[in-house]
């Protein structure tokens, strides 16, 4: 008979190891040492070579005085050094702080100061931005220049190049016994559109689990060829640096998101997987249609997040060779952690019905303990009727540790034992969630709630509309009404009256836009439409033309 009391007393070293995505690199570098890991132009490295560089980076960081839980910031495009930072920094016990390359110097300075940056890795392309930000931050830090012969200006504040810095390191890395899986692995800052951005602290355990969740939910096989069309500064590339290491895949690095270039890389390297916002899907489809090269051999799995592409785009994307998986997540939950898990029987449905189903945010990743639509006041689950609005909440290992140095915001976000996303959704009878709006984006017109996402879904059905965003506009009678901003398909025209009439044929009239603006939509670096800018435009338009509705 087993003595159960004694069985639980076995040494921790024998039956416990801290979960960290660093282990994926260790295994893949040993098992698939000679397989390609990184491609960047003419530059190629194997997994053994990549692991060796990551080890040297970790050693160099420790040699430069980096202590456990201290921050290493990096501002860079999707280049090999950015991939190496995802492993080398946490190996050294440090915290990755990948900075949005589209921020201005003032915002970067705030992050450097708030994050208490100890070491700053700077892609030479952003040397001017980094120099100004460092000056404004007013703190001492070691600055490393990630050299690139394409760009002449190196940061004036840099004391050495990245390659020389690596040479200062050895193969020594942090001892596994020093690593706690609850230690921070990344510090990611939110957009800060309504004030200073908040620093989201993520830990090793969550990164490990969500990286596995990516592979499982996307049914990603071993040895994928992954194109870095998604910025690595966005939720650590949605945890995909670690997922690709887990699966022994290839990281095809690239600067920027230019459709023709991405399409060339897809064909040249036989890319199997990529991620991006729906706008990236649109760009790739349009580029494929414009090229003279045959696209019959294209078979690319595309993970997109946010609003699903419209039905017409889904159909042409499928015909072009892009198989789209719709996911959902936030920075506070490690990027995507919910998936529209596709059911085989849906393949027999019409394209229109498939698009409706694909628009749902779906169900939690396998590693998500709980994703639920709750009444935020009663903290009780909303009925699964597809109609009752509630707030999407998460619980489990894929929830952030905290907002860095912001206990008040942390307590509010994690109140009641759940992370409050701020997204409003319904839960369908089959358990699939469908987001109807951000709480701040709900339009209240004459006491009626209007989902901007519902109105946008109708606008996307118009053949001339390639992009759509709906925000609240002031209204003298109803308080506020929908103002639609649309971007048209090249070569196709539409006017405000036509768009409004199109909506009135498909929506209750109180939900229809009363104002329509046709323009290029402002977007973030990840392709998300910046509604805060559109809200300002809507208010200005009302102020200039209060009687127009």
TrEMBL record:
Keywords: Fatty acid metabolism, Ligase, Lipid metabolism. PROSITE patterns: AMP_BINDING. It holds the Pfam family AMP-binding. The keyword Amino-acid biosynthesis does not apply. Residues 26-404 form the AMP-dependent synthetase/ligase domain. Residues 454-528 form the AMP-binding enzyme C-terminal domain. CDD domains: ttLC_FACS_AEE21_like. InterPro entries: AMP-bd_C, AMP-bd_C_sf, AMP-binding_CS, AMP-dep_synth/lig_dom, ANL_N_sf. Belongs to the ATP-dependent AMP-binding enzyme family. NCBIfam families: PRK08162.1. This is AMP-binding protein.
């Amino acid at each position: 008979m087993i003595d159960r009391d004694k069985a639980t007393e076995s040494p921790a070293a024998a039956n416990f190891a801290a979960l960290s995505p660093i282990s994926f690199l260790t295994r893949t570098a040993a098992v698939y040492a000679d397989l390609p890991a990184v491609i960047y132009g003419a530059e190629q490295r194997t997994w053994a070579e990549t692991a060796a560089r990551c080890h040297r980076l970790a050693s160099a960081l420790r040699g430069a005085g980096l202590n456990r839980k201290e921050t290493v910031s990096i501002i860079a495009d999707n280049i090999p050094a950015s991939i190496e930072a995802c492993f080398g920094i946490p190996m050294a016990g440090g915290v990755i702080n990948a900075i949005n390359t589209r921020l201005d110097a003032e915002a970067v300075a705030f992050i450097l100061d708030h994050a208490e940056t100890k070491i700053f890795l700077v892609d030479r392309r952003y040397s001017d931005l980094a120099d100004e930000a460092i000056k404004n931050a007013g703190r001492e830090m070691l600055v490393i220049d990630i050299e690139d012969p394409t760009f002449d200006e190196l940061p004036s504040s840099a004391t050495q190049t990245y390659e020389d810095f690596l040479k200062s390191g050895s193969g020594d890395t942090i001892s596994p016994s020093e690593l706690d899986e609850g230690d921070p692995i990344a510090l990611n800052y939110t957009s800060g559109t309504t004030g200073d951005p908040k620093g989201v602290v993520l830990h090793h355990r969550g990164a490990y689990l969500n990286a596995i969740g990516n592979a499982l939910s996307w049914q990603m096989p071993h040895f994928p060829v992954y194109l870095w069309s998604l910025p690595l500064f966005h939720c650590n590339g949605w945890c995909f640096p670690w997922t690709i290491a887990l699966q022994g895949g290839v990281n095809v690095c690239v600067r920027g998101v230019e459709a023709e270039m991405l399409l060339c890389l897809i064909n040249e390297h036989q890319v199997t997987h990529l991620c991006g916002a729906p706008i990236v899907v649109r760009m790739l489809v349009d580029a494929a249609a414009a090229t003279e090269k045959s696209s019959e051999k294209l078979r690319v799995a595309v993970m997109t997040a946010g609003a699903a592409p419209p039905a017409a785009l889904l159909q042409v994307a499928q015909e072009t060779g892009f198989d789209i998986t719709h996911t959902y997540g936030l920075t506070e939950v490690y990027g995507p952690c919910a998936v529209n898990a596709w059911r085989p029987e849906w393949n027999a449905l019409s394209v229109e019905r498939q698009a409706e189903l694909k628009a749902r945010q779906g169900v939690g990743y396998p590693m998500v303990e709980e994703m639920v639509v709750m009444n935020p006041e009663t903290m009780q689950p909303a009925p699964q009727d597809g109609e009752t609005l509630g707030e999407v909440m998460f619980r489990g290992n894929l929830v952030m540790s905290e907002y860095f140095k912001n206990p008040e915001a942390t307590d509010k976000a994690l109140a009641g034992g759940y992370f409050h996303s701020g997204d409003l959704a319904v839960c369908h009878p089959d358990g699939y969630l469908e987001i109807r709006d951000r709480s701040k984006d709900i339009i209240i017109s004459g006491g009626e709630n209007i989902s901007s996402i519902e109105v946008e879904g109708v606008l996307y059905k118009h053949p001339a509309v390639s992009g759509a965003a709906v925000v609240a506009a002031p209204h003298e009678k109803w308080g506020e009404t929908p103002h639609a901003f649309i971007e048209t398909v090249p070569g196709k025209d539409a006017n405000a009256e036509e768009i409004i009439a199109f909506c009135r044929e498909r929506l209750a009239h109180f939900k229809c836009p009363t104002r329509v603006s046709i323009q290029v939509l402002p977007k973030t670096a990840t392709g998300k439409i910046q509604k805060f800018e559109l809200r300002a435009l809507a208010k200005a338009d009302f102020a200039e033309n209060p009687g127009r509705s």
